[in-house]
Design goal:
The chain is an alpha/beta fold. About 40% of the residues lie in helices and about 20% in strands. The protein has a single domain, classed as 2-Layer Sandwich (Transcription Regulator spoIIAA). Strands 1-2-3-4-5 form a 5-stranded mixed β-sheet, with helices on both faces. Helix 1 (about 30-45) packs parallel to helix 2.
């Protein structure tokens, strides 16, 4: 039996790196479960900076975009800086269209994001 979709969370210095274990996340129960895990990262932060690694993400539903907006709002409230790494070009376009590019910093990959955010 395969792993359930969810998050892989690791810390690199002052940065928590959150990778999505299995994608696409299309059904509501899966998205809600992953959202709860994601929100917990900023509601009880172990590091003042969080990188969302989208390297394995191939598709984003509109519900997932809503999760990202809520995540950012919760991060702001907790004074946690956020960034997105490894986003594919076709998904980058979705972020541009929805103006999410104005809410997050973007990096080519998680390692560069972690390094860049360590210095911030």
């Amino acid at each position: 039996m395969g792993e359930q979709p969810g998050l892989v969370i690791r810390t690199a210095g002052k940065v928590t790196i959150v990778s999505f274990r299995d994608v696409p996340m299309l059904d509501t129960p899966t998205i809600q479960r992953v959202a709860a895990e994601l929100y917990a990262v900023v509601e009880t932060p172990t590091a003042p900076r969080v990188v969302l690694d989208f390297g394995d993400v191939r598709f984003l539903s509109s519900q997932t975009l809503g999760v990202l907006l809520t995540f950012r709002r919760k991060a702001d409230k907790a004074d946690v800086k956020t960034a997105i790494a490894g986003i594919r070009p076709e998904l980058a376009r979705v972020f541009e269209i929805t103006h999410l590019t104005q809410l997050f910093s973007f990096y080519p990959n998680a390692d560069e994001a972690a390094a860049g955010m360590q210095e911030a």
